[in-house]
Amino acid sequence: MSSKLLDRLYAFARELPRLLEEDVRSVVVFGSAARSEDFVPGLSDLDVLVLVEGLPRRRYYYFDVEGHEVNVAVYTFDELLALYSVGDPLAHMLRRSLVIYDSGLAEALPAEAEVTGHTLRALRRSIFAALGLAVEKYFAGFYREAVSHAYHLARHVIRYDCALHGKQFPVSDAEVKAAASGDLEALFLLSFETRKREVTRTEAASLIERAIDVLCRYLGLKPTTLRQLEAAVWGDAMTVVACEETGSLVFKVERYSESGLKILKVRGEEAEDLTY
Known about the structure:
- The protein has helices at about 1-15, 15-20, 75-85, 90-95, 115-140, 145-165, 175-180, 180-195, 200-220, 225-235; strands at about 25-30, 45-50, 60-65, 70-75, 100, 240-245, 250-255, 260-265, 270-275.
- It has about 280 residues and is an alpha+beta fold.
- It has 2 domains: about 1-110, 2-Layer Sandwich (Beta Polymerase, domain 2), CATH 3.30.460.10; about 115-275, no CATH class.
- A 5-stranded mixed beta sheet has the order 3-4-2-1-5.
- Strand 3 and strand 4 form a beta hairpin.
- The longest helix has 24 residues, at about 115-140.
- The chain starts with a helix and ends with a strand.
- The mean pLDDT is about 95.
Protein backbone atom coordinates (compact mmCIF):
# COMPACT_ATOMS: atom_id res chain seq x y z
CA MET A 1 0.00 0.00 0.00
CA SER A 2 2.76 2.44 0.97
CA SER A 3 4.63 1.85 -2.30
CA LYS A 4 1.57 2.41 -4.50
CA LEU A 5 0.57 5.51 -2.54
CA LEU A 6 4.07 6.94 -2.86
CA ASP A 7 4.01 6.28 -6.60
CA ARG A 8 0.85 8.39 -6.85
CA LEU A 9 2.35 11.14 -4.71
CA TYR A 10 5.50 11.12 -6.87
CA ALA A 11 3.29 11.36 -9.95
CA PHE A 12 1.73 14.50 -8.47
CA ALA A 13 5.19 15.93 -7.76
CA ARG A 14 6.12 15.41 -11.41
CA GLU A 15 3.19 17.67 -12.33
CA LEU A 16 4.50 20.59 -10.25
CA PRO A 17 6.35 22.29 -13.15
CA ARG A 18 2.94 22.59 -14.81
CA LEU A 19 0.97 23.49 -11.67
CA LEU A 20 3.21 26.18 -10.19
CA GLU A 21 3.45 29.71 -11.53
CA GLU A 22 7.24 29.40 -11.54
CA ASP A 23 10.09 28.71 -13.95
CA VAL A 24 10.75 25.28 -12.42
CA ARG A 25 14.16 23.71 -13.02
CA SER A 26 14.23 20.91 -10.42
CA VAL A 27 11.78 19.02 -8.21
CA VAL A 28 13.25 17.09 -5.27
CA VAL A 29 11.36 15.05 -2.67
CA PHE A 30 12.99 14.95 0.77
CA GLY A 31 11.98 13.80 4.25
CA SER A 32 10.22 10.54 4.98
CA ALA A 33 8.47 10.44 1.58
CA ALA A 34 11.87 10.06 -0.08
CA ARG A 35 12.34 6.76 1.80
CA SER A 36 9.53 4.23 1.55
CA GLU A 37 10.63 2.49 4.75
CA ASP A 38 10.08 5.74 6.73
CA PHE A 39 6.79 6.80 5.14
CA VAL A 40 3.63 6.26 7.22
CA PRO A 41 0.39 6.26 5.16
CA GLY A 42 -2.25 8.59 6.56
CA LEU A 43 0.30 10.53 8.62
CA SER A 44 3.48 11.46 6.75
CA ASP A 45 3.66 14.56 4.55
CA LEU A 46 5.21 14.91 1.11
CA ASP A 47 7.99 17.50 1.45
CA VAL A 48 9.17 18.91 -1.87
CA LEU A 49 11.96 21.29 -2.77
CA VAL A 50 11.54 23.17 -6.05
CA LEU A 51 14.43 25.04 -7.65
CA VAL A 52 13.45 27.89 -9.96
CA GLU A 53 15.07 30.34 -12.32
CA GLY A 54 14.68 33.93 -11.11
CA LEU A 55 13.02 35.10 -7.90
CA PRO A 56 10.04 32.94 -6.93
CA ARG A 57 6.53 34.36 -7.13
CA ARG A 58 5.77 32.49 -3.90
CA ARG A 59 8.02 30.78 -1.38
CA TYR A 60 5.61 28.04 -0.33
CA TYR A 61 2.77 26.10 -1.91
CA TYR A 62 0.46 23.67 -0.16
CA PHE A 63 -1.66 20.90 -1.63
CA ASP A 64 -3.71 18.00 -0.30
CA VAL A 65 -3.29 14.74 -2.19
CA GLU A 66 -5.21 11.68 -0.96
CA GLY A 67 -5.27 13.08 2.57
CA HIS A 68 -1.55 13.84 2.65
CA GLU A 69 -0.19 17.37 2.89
CA VAL A 70 2.18 18.31 0.08
CA ASN A 71 4.50 21.05 1.29
CA VAL A 72 6.46 22.75 -1.49
CA ALA A 73 9.38 25.05 -0.66
CA VAL A 74 10.69 27.22 -3.52
CA TYR A 75 14.31 28.40 -3.81
CA THR A 76 16.74 29.60 -6.43
CA PHE A 77 19.92 27.57 -6.89
CA ASP A 78 22.05 30.30 -5.25
CA GLU A 79 19.71 30.49 -2.26
CA LEU A 80 20.01 26.75 -1.73
CA LEU A 81 23.80 26.93 -2.04
CA ALA A 82 23.72 29.54 0.74
CA LEU A 83 21.87 27.05 2.96
CA TYR A 84 24.59 24.49 2.27
CA SER A 85 27.26 27.03 3.20
CA VAL A 86 25.73 27.67 6.65
CA GLY A 87 24.95 23.99 7.29
CA ASP A 88 21.18 24.39 7.37
CA PRO A 89 19.34 21.17 8.36
CA LEU A 90 17.50 21.24 5.02
CA ALA A 91 20.83 20.89 3.22
CA HIS A 92 21.66 17.89 5.42
CA MET A 93 18.26 16.32 4.72
CA LEU A 94 18.88 16.49 0.98
CA ARG A 95 21.63 13.89 1.38
CA ARG A 96 18.83 11.29 1.34
CA SER A 97 16.44 12.78 -1.22
CA LEU A 98 14.74 11.73 -4.45
CA VAL A 99 15.08 13.82 -7.61
CA ILE A 100 11.77 13.76 -9.48
CA TYR A 101 12.62 16.24 -12.22
CA ASP A 102 15.87 18.03 -13.01
CA SER A 103 17.32 20.27 -15.68
CA GLY A 104 20.80 19.91 -14.20
CA LEU A 105 20.59 22.11 -11.09
CA ALA A 106 19.94 19.39 -8.52
CA GLU A 107 22.83 17.25 -9.71
CA ALA A 108 25.14 20.28 -9.31
CA LEU A 109 24.45 20.58 -5.57
CA PRO A 110 27.19 19.61 -3.07
CA ALA A 111 27.12 16.00 -1.89
CA GLU A 112 26.95 17.01 1.76
CA ALA A 113 26.79 20.02 4.08
CA GLU A 114 28.99 20.77 7.08
CA VAL A 115 27.72 20.91 10.66
CA THR A 116 27.94 24.49 11.92
CA GLY A 117 26.69 26.65 14.75
CA HIS A 118 23.69 27.44 12.57
CA THR A 119 22.96 23.70 12.32
CA LEU A 120 22.87 23.42 16.11
CA ARG A 121 20.73 26.50 16.62
CA ALA A 122 18.24 25.44 13.96
CA LEU A 123 17.94 21.91 15.37
CA ARG A 124 17.47 23.25 18.89
CA ARG A 125 14.63 25.48 17.67
CA SER A 126 13.10 22.48 15.90
CA ILE A 127 13.13 20.47 19.14
CA PHE A 128 10.96 23.02 20.94
CA ALA A 129 8.75 23.57 17.89
CA ALA A 130 7.99 19.84 17.81
CA LEU A 131 7.17 19.78 21.53
CA GLY A 132 4.81 22.75 21.16
CA LEU A 133 3.02 21.03 18.28
CA ALA A 134 2.79 17.74 20.21
CA VAL A 135 1.09 19.48 23.13
CA GLU A 136 -1.13 21.56 20.81
CA LYS A 137 -2.37 18.43 19.00
CA TYR A 138 -2.93 16.73 22.36
CA PHE A 139 -5.16 19.55 23.58
CA ALA A 140 -7.05 19.45 20.27
CA GLY A 141 -7.72 15.72 20.68
CA PHE A 142 -5.52 14.55 17.79
CA TYR A 143 -3.59 12.00 19.80
CA ARG A 144 -1.88 10.13 16.97
CA GLU A 145 -0.61 13.43 15.55
CA ALA A 146 0.55 14.44 19.03
CA VAL A 147 2.62 11.27 19.27
CA SER A 148 3.99 11.87 15.77
CA HIS A 149 5.30 15.27 16.84
CA ALA A 150 6.86 13.65 19.92
CA TYR A 151 8.61 11.30 17.48
CA HIS A 152 9.89 14.35 15.59
CA LEU A 153 11.13 15.81 18.87
CA ALA A 154 13.10 12.66 19.66
CA ARG A 155 14.54 12.63 16.15
CA HIS A 156 15.58 16.29 16.40
CA VAL A 157 17.28 15.72 19.77
CA ILE A 158 19.25 12.77 18.40
CA ARG A 159 20.33 14.79 15.37
CA TYR A 160 21.27 17.67 17.67
CA ASP A 161 23.34 15.31 19.82
CA CYS A 162 25.15 13.98 16.74
CA ALA A 163 25.84 17.51 15.46
CA LEU A 164 27.06 18.57 18.90
CA HIS A 165 29.55 15.71 19.08
CA GLY A 166 30.88 15.89 15.52
CA LYS A 167 29.04 12.84 14.20
CA GLN A 168 27.38 12.57 10.79
CA PHE A 169 23.90 14.07 10.60
CA PRO A 170 21.49 11.09 10.61
CA VAL A 171 18.68 11.40 8.07
CA SER A 172 16.69 8.17 7.82
CA ASP A 173 14.97 6.50 10.75
CA ALA A 174 17.50 3.66 10.55
CA GLU A 175 20.36 6.17 10.80
CA VAL A 176 18.67 7.99 13.69
CA LYS A 177 18.09 4.72 15.56
CA ALA A 178 21.72 3.65 15.03
CA ALA A 179 22.95 7.00 16.38
CA ALA A 180 20.76 6.95 19.50
CA SER A 181 21.30 5.32 22.88
CA GLY A 182 19.77 5.16 26.34
CA ASP A 183 16.64 7.17 27.08
CA LEU A 184 16.77 8.97 23.74
CA GLU A 185 16.76 5.70 21.85
CA ALA A 186 13.91 4.35 23.98
CA LEU A 187 11.82 7.50 23.42
CA PHE A 188 12.47 7.41 19.69
CA LEU A 189 11.54 3.74 19.34
CA LEU A 190 8.39 4.08 21.45
CA SER A 191 7.10 7.12 19.55
CA PHE A 192 8.17 5.59 16.22
CA GLU A 193 6.04 2.47 16.83
CA THR A 194 3.10 4.18 18.57
CA ARG A 195 2.48 6.67 15.74
CA LYS A 196 1.75 3.82 13.33
CA ARG A 197 -1.63 3.07 14.96
CA GLU A 198 -4.55 4.77 16.67
CA VAL A 199 -3.57 6.35 19.98
CA THR A 200 -5.61 6.97 23.13
CA ARG A 201 -5.54 10.17 25.17
CA THR A 202 -3.81 8.35 28.03
CA GLU A 203 -1.11 6.96 25.72
CA ALA A 204 -0.48 10.37 24.18
CA ALA A 205 -0.27 12.07 27.57
CA SER A 206 2.16 9.44 28.88
CA LEU A 207 4.41 9.72 25.84
CA ILE A 208 4.46 13.54 25.95
CA GLU A 209 5.32 13.47 29.66
CA ARG A 210 8.14 11.07 28.87
CA ALA A 211 9.37 13.30 26.04
CA ILE A 212 9.41 16.32 28.36
CA ASP A 213 11.33 14.37 31.00
CA VAL A 214 13.95 13.08 28.53
CA LEU A 215 14.34 16.47 26.86
CA CYS A 216 14.73 18.40 30.10
CA ARG A 217 17.25 15.94 31.52
CA TYR A 218 19.24 16.02 28.28
CA LEU A 219 19.32 19.83 28.05
CA GLY A 220 19.54 20.43 31.81
CA LEU A 221 16.25 22.33 32.00
CA LYS A 222 13.81 22.59 34.88
CA PRO A 223 10.68 20.87 33.51
CA THR A 224 7.13 22.07 33.10
CA THR A 225 5.10 18.89 32.92
CA LEU A 226 1.98 18.24 30.87
CA ARG A 227 0.08 17.80 34.14
CA GLN A 228 1.15 21.27 35.28
CA LEU A 229 0.24 22.73 31.91
CA GLU A 230 -3.22 21.15 31.91
CA ALA A 231 -3.87 22.46 35.42
CA ALA A 232 -2.94 25.99 34.35
CA VAL A 233 -4.81 26.06 31.03
CA TRP A 234 -8.15 24.65 32.21
CA GLY A 235 -9.56 23.93 28.77
CA ASP A 236 -8.74 23.83 25.10
CA ALA A 237 -5.55 25.46 23.84
CA MET A 238 -5.57 27.10 20.42
CA THR A 239 -1.82 27.41 20.02
CA VAL A 240 1.05 26.16 22.15
CA VAL A 241 4.65 27.35 21.89
CA ALA A 242 7.41 25.61 23.85
CA CYS A 243 10.66 27.43 24.58
CA GLU A 244 13.52 27.64 27.06
CA GLU A 245 13.87 30.61 29.39
CA THR A 246 16.56 31.00 32.05
CA GLY A 247 17.11 27.29 32.46
CA SER A 248 13.45 26.25 32.40
CA LEU A 249 11.05 24.70 29.91
CA VAL A 250 8.26 27.21 29.39
CA PHE A 251 4.99 27.00 27.48
CA LYS A 252 3.13 29.97 26.04
CA VAL A 253 -0.50 29.15 25.37
CA GLU A 254 -3.34 30.96 23.61
CA ARG A 255 -6.85 29.88 24.53
CA TYR A 256 -10.38 31.24 24.62
CA SER A 257 -12.12 31.86 27.95
CA GLU A 258 -15.45 33.43 28.84
CA SER A 259 -13.73 36.83 28.84
CA GLY A 260 -12.15 36.28 25.39
CA LEU A 261 -8.69 35.34 24.17
CA LYS A 262 -6.23 34.56 26.97
CA ILE A 263 -2.46 34.24 26.65
CA LEU A 264 -0.69 32.33 29.41
CA LYS A 265 2.96 31.64 30.13
CA VAL A 266 3.36 28.47 32.18
CA ARG A 267 6.57 27.68 34.03
CA GLY A 268 6.24 24.75 36.43
CA GLU A 269 3.41 25.48 38.86
CA GLU A 270 3.38 29.18 37.93
CA ALA A 271 1.06 30.64 35.28
CA GLU A 272 1.46 34.24 34.17
CA ASP A 273 -1.32 36.05 32.28
CA LEU A 274 0.24 37.78 29.24
CA THR A 275 -3.08 38.95 27.80
CA TYR A 276 -2.89 42.55 26.61
